[in-house]
């Protein structure tokens, strides 16, 4: 939900205070204010936005102004779809890549075929 125009954008007052005291290249500014909007004064600063587990570094650029800090620090991690069949397919692909790489460089460490007499 957007804020009304008469209220203006929400920027955490503590965050504004931290930005005014620093220069852009003085390291990351840690913050938990994910709901705070990115103001034009934030451009060039690096924020450590908390995602519930750790701080994710976000370098603010011009295109980010007006967005929220939380948009650039995802809180969930996508596992993958598939299951058992997908896992088998990935293992086969990996083995094929390894075999192709060994064949391409003529790997000398690979065991030689036994010689029959």
Helix content: 25-40%
By CATH, the superfamily of the domain at 13-72 comes out as Ribosomal protein S19/S15
CATH topology of the domain at 13-72: 30s Ribosomal Protein S19, Chain A
In sequence order, what are the helices and strands, one letter per element?
HEEEH
CATH class category of the domain at 13-72: Alpha Beta
User: Count of DSSP helices?
Assistant: 2
Question: Would you tell me the overall average pLDDT?
Answer: 87
Poorly predicted segments: none
- CATH architecture field of the domain at 13-72: 2-Layer Sandwich
Radius of gyration: 25 Å
- The rough form would be described as elongated
Largest sheet: 3 strands, mixed
Describe this structure in words.
The chain has helices spanning 13-21, 84-105; strands at 28-31, 46-50, 55-59. It is α+β, with helices and mostly antiparallel strands and 117 residues long. It has a domain at 13-72: Ribosomal protein S19/S15 (30s Ribosomal Protein S19, Chain A). The chain has a 3-stranded mixed β-sheet, covered by helices on one side. Strand 2 and strand 3 form a beta hairpin.
Entry summary:
This protein is 26% helix and 12% strand. The protein is built from two helices and three strands, in the order αβββα.
Any chance you could write out the topology, listing elements then pairs?
Blueprint: H1 13-21, E1 28-31, E2 46-50, E3 55-59, H2 84-105
Parallel strand pairs: 1-2
Antiparallel strand pairs: 2-3
Relevant terms:
3 strands, 30s Ribosomal Protein S19, Chain A, 117 residues
């Amino acid at each position: 939900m957007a804020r009304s125009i008469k209220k203006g954008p929400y920027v955490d007052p503590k965050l504004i205070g931290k930005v005014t005291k620093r220069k852009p290249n003085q390291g990351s500014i840690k913050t938990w204010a994910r709901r705070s909007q990115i103001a034009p004064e934030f451009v060039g600063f690096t924020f450590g936005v908390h995602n519930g587990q750790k701080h994710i570094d976000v370098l603010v650029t011009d295109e980010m102004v007006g967005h929220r800090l939380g948009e650039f620090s995802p809180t969930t991690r996508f596992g993958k779809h598939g299951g058992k069949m997908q896992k088998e397919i990935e293992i086969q692909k990996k083995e094929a890549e390894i075999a192709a790489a060994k064949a391409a460089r003529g790997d000398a460490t690979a065991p030689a075929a036994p010689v029959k007499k």
